[in-house]
Design goal:
The complex is a heterodimer of chains A (260) and B (262).
Chain A (H helix, E strand, L loop, with lengths): L2 H16 L2 H9 L3 H11 L10 H16 L5 H10 L3 H6 L4 H30 L9 H27 L11 H11 L11 H8 L8 H7 L6 H29 L6
Helix pairs in contact in A: 1-7, 2-7, 3-4, 4-11, 5-8, 8-11, 8-12
Chain B lengths: L1 H18 L3 H25 L11 H26 L2 H7 L2 H6 L4 H7 L7 H17 L6 H27 L8 H11 L11 H10 L2 H4 L1 H7 L5 H27 L7
Helix pairs in contact in B: 2-3, 3-7, 3-8, 3-12, 8-9, 8-12, 8-13
Classes of the chains: A mainly alpha (260), B mainly alpha (262).
Amino acid sequence: MSFKVIKTLLTTQYAYMLEYRIEIALWALSGVLPFIMFSLWSQNDVGNTFGLNDIGLARYFLSAFLVRQFSVVWVVFSFEEDSLSGRLSPYLLQPLHPLLRYVAAHLAEQATRLPFAIAIAITFFILNPSSFWLPSLPQFFLAYLSTHLAFSIAFLLQSLVAALCFWTEKSSSLERLIFVPYLFLSGLLVPLSAFPSNVLKIAMLTPFPYLINFPARILAGMPVDIFNGFLAQIFWISILIPSVNILWKLGVKRYTAMGA
Amino acid sequence: MQRYFKTIKLFWSTAFASQLEYQLNFLIELLAMLGTLLGSVFILSLFFTGGRQLGDWTWESALVIQGVYTFLDGLTNALLRPNLTEIVNYVREGTLDYVLLKPIDSQFWLSVKKFSFAGLPEVILGLSIVFWSTIQSGSSFSFYSLSIFIISLFIGFIILYSVWFLIAASSIWFVKTWNATEVLRALLAAGRYPVSAYPVILRFIFTLVLPVAFLTTFPAEAILGELKFNILFFGLILSCLFFIFSRFFWKFALKHYTSASS
């Protein structure tokens, strides 16, 4: 794919997203769950039991919030809508993989979301001035990289579900089966170090801890096994890419062009 | 009045028939519900490690709150979400015109048109958790505590409905409001935990601004026999205000409605 195509895709999607700034601001706000959990954990002094003081908790949850902001994925919902309304048919005819169009939409949306995420982070620091910190440049770079990898895993996981749209009309409800383990095992509600060791062991076998917990720990400057973390992220991506590819090819063969 | 009951009966029996087509959906919802409950109870248990309490609530009484939350979540999935998230589509496609032309109250029509039966197991499970953990916590049921519980659940549901409807009605102006319902859902998740477990500012917000406390904490206190009467009284007034405001807001929104289709 040429540089020109990438540029055109991203700029058109960015222009499109700018139209929906209020909605994106609201969406950024809907990520407040880590803050609610932070207020609970710190108010009830539970942090000490898993080795985090109030400042550590604050930094962890702010990082979790930020990582989530830039790894949110909704491809299955767009795809289902496009597939049911027949808009997918022209996309399939173009010499461009339809999924790449959604990738561009997500990246453009992240760029639109950036100022809102920064505003929320600043508000958080004003309310909790003692927790203020700036990650060092290498830390920031590694966190940035691992957030992108987290986004890739999340995107591929959901694309796998989206590809099921070719078989069933309501694949977005299948997404709930990914979202539920994601919610509890990713570290969005609690740092995974709080888990009992046997639960933690099982959680680490799934891709979910690498979606929030791993990047957030890097960003917050907490001790983390960087090498194995990246290795696991790359491992999941390298499994998911061929799976999505196969399922997609099988699905397109069955495509019946609904609504068109 | 009878006309309204008859309409509901017709709506929900057709909803039932059409959902029989999607039996797999029912199974998925069931799995997702069990997973969510398992996860939330697990997270809740982390607060109690080392014999701690959560905002002076014991483990069993905190489970009552989880039960009430599950119950209301079931009602949300059965009734509020399928209906109120559709309003956006009616506005966008201009089909709201046909709803407004019908000889029945438009807020009523929009609020009860659909019913997702996949939400019902959650409702039943929620109530079972409430009763089971109330017994575990050592409180006994009385006619009084049960009736107070039912009234406070009703108050909670009216407030929940009104807030959902307010946000859904704002789609007359903003056509992509489903993001706003996501904000609401994120905030309502705070209701999984007793309101006394939050810092003072949030306690205030969750009681008076976005009354999450009336949704879960107070009904749980009611069945445990700890709810103060003046809170119940205040809740009745608050729920009436929320409901009246939602109606007022809908009338106001309709004045600004400019049809999309014609």
